[in-house]
Amino acid sequence: MARVGNSIIKGIEISEIIKLLNKAYADEWLAYYQYFIESKVVKGIMKDAAIVELNQHAADELRHATMIADRIIQLGGTPLLHPKDWIKKTNCGYGEPKNFDVVAILQDAINGEQCAIKTYSSIVDLVRDKDIVTYDIASQILADEVAHEEDLQTLHDDITEFVTDLKKSLK
Ligand code: FE
Ligand code: FE
Q1: For residue 1, is it within any domain?
Q2: pTM (whole model) above 0.90
Q3: How many whole angstroms from 171 Cα to the centroid of ligand 2?
Q4: Helix 132-170, helix 14-41: angle, nearest 10
Q5: 105, 134, 85: which is closest to 42 by C-alpha?
Q6: Mean residue pLDDT across the chain
Q7: Does an H or E element contain 90, and which?
Q8: Can you give the CATH number for the domain in which 19 is found?
Q9: Which of 12, 30, 124, 160 could make an SS bond with 130 (beta carbons 3.0 to 4.6 A apart)?
Q10: What is the pLDDT of residue 149?
Q11: What separation in Å is there between the alpha carbon of 71 and the centre of ligand 1?
């Protein structure tokens, strides 16, 4: 545990920060798996473009889980040790893919990112001026989640437009 490093935290209990981070940690693993499995089951037109995007996002979510686990340990905490706790502690839940069509898969993923943005935005608000290191980590992740939402929405809209144009041209 970082003794001096943790002595600079003011105005918030370290146990409270660890609790917030463990919930986000659960979200990241579930997001990782959601992207992983979506990239395997996705079907339909332009699915190859979606697979590239989903795989990139999976790698990002795993990197976020690493960043959060390292910070929890610095704070003297223990990252969740059992996958069953991911479901218990998650903020955003798990968006099991039910409809494998590429547009539906992308919409599920967009919903997940929108929840992640809300989660990190609230963590940033809670630790601002109190724990600058967690603030910095949560801000970096927040910026990634905003970029994820944008990338997915753009791809979702491009595919939707392409399909609409295709249907028109076939009439
Ligand atoms: Fe993430
Ligand atoms: Fe994300």
Answers
A1: no
A2: yes
A3: 38
A4: 20
A5: 105
A6: 96
A7: none
A8: 1.20.1260.10
A9: 12
A10: 98
A11: 15
| pLDDT band (50, 70, 90) for residue 126 | very high
More confident site: 82 or 45: 82
- On whether residue 87 sits in a domain, the answer given is yes
Q: Which of 18, 155, 115, 140 is nearest to 75 (CA)?
A: 18
Alpha-carbon span 143 to 157, nearest angstrom: 21
CA of 87 to the centre of ligand 1 (A): 16
Average pLDDT over residues 6-25: 96
Q: Give the pLDDT of residue 84.
A: 98
Ligand 1 center to 129 CA (angstroms)? 23
- Is there a domain that residue 3 lies in? no
> In which domain, by residue range, is 29 found?
12-170
Question: Span 121-135, mean pLDDT?
Answer: 98
Split into its structural domains, the chain has a count of 1
Q: What local confidence, expressed as pLDDT, does residue 2 receive?
A: 82
Query: Which residues are placed with Cβ below 5 angstroms of ligand 2, an ion?
Result: 145, 148
Distance 166 CA to ligand 2 centre (A): 30
* Residue located via tokens 């919409």: 107
- Nearest alpha carbon to residue 89 among 28, 147, 6: 28
